[in-house]
Amino acid sequence: MAFWPSPFLFTQIKKILHQFPFLILYKSPDLNKSTYRLLQPFIVLHIIIVIGIAGYMIIEKSTFLDALFMTTISITTVGYGEVIPLSDAGRLFTIFLLITSWGTFAFVITRITQFVISGEINKYFKTRRLMKDIKNLQNHVILCGYGRNGHQAARILKAHGVPFIVIEKDEQLMQKIEAEGEKVLHLEGDSTDDDLLRMAGIERARALITTLPLDAQNVFIVLSARALNQNLRIISRASEASSVSKLKKAGADNVIMPDFVGGTHMATLVSKPDIVEFIDFLSGEEGESIHMESVNYKELPDEIKNKSLREVMLWNKTGVNCIGIKDPDGKFQINPPEDTLIVSGMKVITLGTLQQIAEMKKNLK
Length: 365
Fold this sequence. Notes:
CATH superfamily of the largest domain: NAD(P)-binding Rossmann-like Domain
CATH architecture of the largest domain: 3-Layer(aba) Sandwich
Shape: elongated
Number of strands: 10
CATH class of the largest domain: Alpha Beta
Structural class: alpha/beta
Number of domains: 3
Distance between the termini: 76 Å
Helix content: 40-55%
């Protein structure tokens, strides 16, 4: 039985595989488990087809088209006449192909039915759309935790048009949010997972906000995030005052204690109610028509770098007002003199309407 020469077999199978590139999908590094499970029955089916074509071409020396026809009528059990005369080896191979293909069809139909009934197909395509949306995110914010603080942060980000993605491990919470009609781009899982942070596009993100209730988890997230993106702005929640220094050492740029901020805010409402209400108006949802923007020295056109604040603010006259500057040492100066030189390392804090801010940004490009 010398009809099965190994070198010739491998050469023929290699040629056939080039005509069926989808068979090498399972080797792709981008293929996740859900994708593989969905494609698995089709991969098995196409492997049977390739085996059938290769078998007829090798055993009976048939053409590719004849081998494809014989394979098709065999695995579909249509029963058309043979287009090529079969030898004993060919008949044995056909018997093998019929038995194998029958089991394969049963497997394929069973798996597809399982996918439809369990809703896994819908979940698969939903995941594909999610990953596509995430890949389109640029200069966005990653929000770890969607509790009370995370939910409020998301509302403000949304009100000011800042793109963000939520990472939340409580699947029931996110299902409840979706059921209420609130559309939030989110990933389900543990925010301390480096792979999940990468999936959320941490390398392209502008900032990360972690609002988890446990300070230890926030410290871990800050450490991971800082290691993955050195230029990321990290804002963390802290429940205990002793955790503030730890979070700062871990790499957090800002640490917020909600209870402390809430108490201060309420007390200030007593002593300076109008001022606090005005600031709330600017930073909250109601103030979406008015924006404050920080302009870095690096963003300024060369014509106005190292010039006075007067010349900077009169650039193309957008109507935006300067309410302060941040010097290279990180100190703020409110209502700075117009003759203040804007030098490297400085930031200009501006106030204006959405239209004025948009005009200013356009002029800075």
